[in-house]
């Protein structure tokens, strides 16, 4: 299945300092990127909270950054602030290159993101593709996180599982904004919150709260980061306190709105 990723934008970063510049900004080891893979990266602020989440790939010596469209202006502004005297060129390629999400497709020109999902980029549009909702559903099914504007600067990489198998965080690379905080959490203790899949009979929105009974504290709750309506139900990804997963969980502390964790 092929889906036009109309909700994503694409930034090109080129120039002789492109690799070292991006290496100093993002959470993963940019030097390890090959031309047939997508590398997930977090762009963090200095307190270790994620500003935005990126897919990074490399073609013909240049780097491309795929992000939700609503965050592209923020990304460009951040990169321009920090590039200083670096020899890099930052360009918005959103209108020049089409991005397609592939589900269970074998395409020699695509780049694997995770599990059965991959990305295909083209200069010319494809005529045959499916509705965007199929992509959102597939991403939720494999617990692929996303950070949208209303969740920017609220979550750590560990909260959305980027540290597991270092899928989005390298603990051996050099410094980047927030690196000390992220590393300290990794080496000194287990994360209190993790990413889980949920279902609900009630309408949910990104940013909605998840609570255990009578809780007003973030320590025993979480938030929704990605959601889709599927038939009569809503399926979503939520960050939630690992110590409360066996309790009854409610939407926005409304005890009439029970949600359920999907057991893997």
What does this structure look like?
This protein has two domains: about 1-140, Alpha-Beta Plaits (2-Layer Sandwich); about 150-260, Elongation Factor Tu (Ef-tu), domain 3 (Beta Barrel), CATH 2.40.30.160. About 15% of the residues lie in helices and about 35% in strands. It has helices spanning about 20-25, 70-85, 130-140, 180-190; strands spanning about 1-5, 10-15, 40-45, 50-60, 60-70, 90, 100-105, 110-115, 115-120, 195-200, 210, 220-230, 235-240, 250, 255-260. It has a six-stranded antiparallel barrel. A hairpin with an 8-residue loop joins strand 11 and strand 12. It is globular and about 55 Å long.
In short:
The protein has helices spanning about 20-25, 70-85, 130-140, 180-190, and strands spanning about 1-5, 10-15, 40-45, 50-60, 60-70, 90, 100-105, 110-115, 115-120, 195-200, 210, 220-230, 235-240, 250, 255-260. It is α+β, with helices and mostly antiparallel strands and about 260 residues long. A 6-stranded antiparallel β-barrel has the order 10-13-12-11-14-15. It has a 5-stranded antiparallel beta sheet with strand order 3-4-5-2-6, with helices on one face. Strands 1-7-9-8 form a 4-stranded antiparallel beta sheet, with helices on one face.
């Amino acid at each position: 299945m092929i889906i036009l990723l109309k909700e994503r934008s694409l930034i090109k970063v080129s120039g002789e300092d492109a690799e070292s510049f991006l290496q100093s900004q993002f959470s993963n080891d940019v030097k390890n990127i090959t031309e047939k893979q997508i590398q997930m990266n977090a762009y963090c602020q200095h307190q270790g909270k994620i500003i935005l989440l990126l897919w990074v790939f490399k073609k013909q010596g240049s780097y491309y950054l795929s992000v939700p469209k609503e965050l592209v202006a923020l990304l460009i502004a951040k990169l321009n602030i920090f590039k200083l005297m670096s020899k890099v060129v930052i360009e918005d390629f959103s209108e020049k290159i089409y991005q397609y999400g592939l589900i269970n497709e074998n395409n020699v020109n695509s780049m694997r993101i995770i599990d059965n999902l991959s990305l295909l980029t083209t200069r010319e549009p494809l005529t045959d593709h499916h509705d965007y909702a199929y992509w959102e559903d597939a991403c939720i099914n494999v617990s692929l996180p996303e950070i949208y504007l209303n969740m920017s600067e609220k979550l750590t990489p560990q909260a959305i599982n980027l540290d597991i198998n270092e899928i989005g965080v390298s603990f051996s690379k050099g410094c980047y904004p927030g690196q000390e905080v992220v590393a300290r959490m990794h080496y000194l203790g287990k994360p209190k919150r993790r990413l889980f899949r949920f279902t609900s009979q009630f309408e949910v929105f990104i940013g909605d709260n998840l609570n255990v009974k009578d809780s007003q504290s973030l320590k025993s709750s979480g938030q929704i980061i990605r959601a889709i309506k599927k038939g009569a139900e809503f399926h979503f990804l939520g960050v939630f306190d690992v110590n409360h997963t066996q309790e009854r969980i409610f939407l926005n502390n409304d005890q009439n709105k029970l949600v359920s964790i999907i057991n893997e």
